[in-house]
Request: fold
Amino acid sequence: MTGAAQEVAPGAYRIELPLPWELETVNVYAIRLEEGWALLDTGVGTRECFLALEASLEGLGIAWSGIRLVVITHTHPDHSGLAARVLERTGAKLWMHAAECEQLCIYADAGRHEQWQAGALELAGVPEALRERMRKVFEGMRVSFARLEPERELCGGERIAARMGDLETIWTPGHSPGHVCLYQRESGVLFSGDQVLERITPNVSWQPGHDALGHYLDSLRMLEAMEVRRVLPSHGAPFAGHRERVGETLRHHEERCRQIRAHVTEHEMTAHEVAAKLWTRKMGALNHYFAAMESLAHLDYMERRGELRSRKAGAALVWSLAA
Reply:
């Protein structure tokens, strides 16, 4: 049941909160500090989510004033949408990666975000009517993109003094430029955010000036080398066997690249056309957006490695095999 708290490590509680989208739920974590509590992520900015979080904290006997620190894994709305409201209630310090602060400046500025998004979707070759539907979806989500001013901008390697032992921040860019995980080295507990999920693979969207997929895969390989006994993800239940799951995810993206090579061998394609080949089920505007942007990230990754080449065709890029 969403809102209920489950102890998943000594002094760490998983709180499952409702989402208004197909994914349905997100996990936030209440972690006992040496003094007070930390909250890892906050949930989406809806009334239902806030009430579920409030009820769960009350069930744990945690007053709003008892939360001393809020850590944001990344600024996607299901993770940071309630942050401004939680910070107002608690007076807590906010920690998030510097790259997420930069990204949130774009998300929180309606005009700037729409301009950035429109340019990216034109580059992907998304038809105008579908772009407009996507724009309206994000317009409704904009309440979750409030500006945040962190007390500390993270870069990775910072430590949080918790009852379960020091938690180390691990910078894992790719899914988002400043995505961070928390790692308790002695017990091998990894709060993985969206970086490692047991049942699904996180969306890896194209980001201007970044090799988003390359960064994501490098982050996976870094985590693969670490000693992890228990993964506490942002979606789904805790699980063990992180190396097996990392291996599955790496192979998933290798297969995606293989499929793309096969498709563009036949003729030049836009990212939107590639997405239609890779995702054949009927999708709403939001999932169409994710599919097009993830396809663009794969195409960009493959061009950076000399497998593909692109050229402009109007406002869009079309892709073919490199000579």
